Amino acid sequence: MMCSVIVIFMERRQIKAVAIYVRVSTQDQSCQLQKRELEEYVAIKGWEIFKVYEDKKTGTNGKREMLKQLMDDVNNKKIDIVLCWKLDRLFRSLKDLLATLHEFSEKNIEFVSLKDQIDLTTSSGRLMMQILGAFAEFEASIIRSRVMAGLENAKAQGKKLGRAKTRPSELIRSLYEAGHSYRKIASLAGVSLGTVATEIKEMKCSEKGNSEQ
83 exposed, middle or buried (CB, 10 Å; 0-12, 13-18, 19+)? Predict the structure, then answer.
């Protein structure tokens, strides 16, 4: 009897909790087609829907309330898989895609884009993620080399580098703009997470001040 209870408990634990994200651009459009196909896919896989997150805003809009809720649940590790209809429903750009998938990977959360046939729950899908990660590393190395070469050139010309002597500001900002997470930036730049957070906060404050002028 005890063995049966343990087996049932383990089977329940193996059922994966899925977050479904759907989006249309305007209020008069419907997400029903996306939801129906995604719910059918979840049923076929034998997964369990944790929640359906639905936004009705353009993909370039950074203030998507349900996307924010989804990422909060990702950070709190409430879900095992994020499922969307197409990549452009969830991500704003390639940079956004790489940064978000890296964040999912750090939290051991899998990702599936149904229509794009991208499934990071499979070995081939994970291989694709590793290839994307390799390209991101390559891009980061190019950025680092370019920034360091610029700093060396400035130093050779006798220019004062200011804060760059205490923290590599340009490198941190370039890596952030390339879509890397704070943890990845800290590793690549050889600084602490606090230094990365401070630099990016100052950058955002500067950008906000310039936009208000």
Answer: buried
CA distance 107 to 87: 20
Sign of CA dihedral 176, 180, 181, 182: negative
Burial of 4 (0-12, 13-18, 19+ CB in 10 A): exposed
Is pTM beyond 0.85? Reply is no
Residue 22 sits at φ, ψ, to 5 deg, of -130, 150
- CATH number of the domain bearing residue 61: 3.40.50.1390
Percent helix / strand / coil, the chain, rounded to 5: 60, 15, 25
Do residues 112 and 130 both lie within one domain? no
Domain range for residue 112? 2-121
Catalytic residue among 4, 25, 30, 181: 25
Q: What is the pLDDT of residues 41-83, one digit of tens each?
A: 999 999 999 999 999 887 666 678 999 999 999 999 899 999 9
In this predicted structure, the answer to whether residue 213 has a pLDDT above a threshold of 90 is no
105 is catalytic: no
Last residue of a domain, one of 73, 90, 121: 121
Torsion angle defined by CA atoms of residues 164, 168, 169 and 172, in that order, rounded to the nearest 10 degrees: 170
Mean of pLDDT over the chain: 80
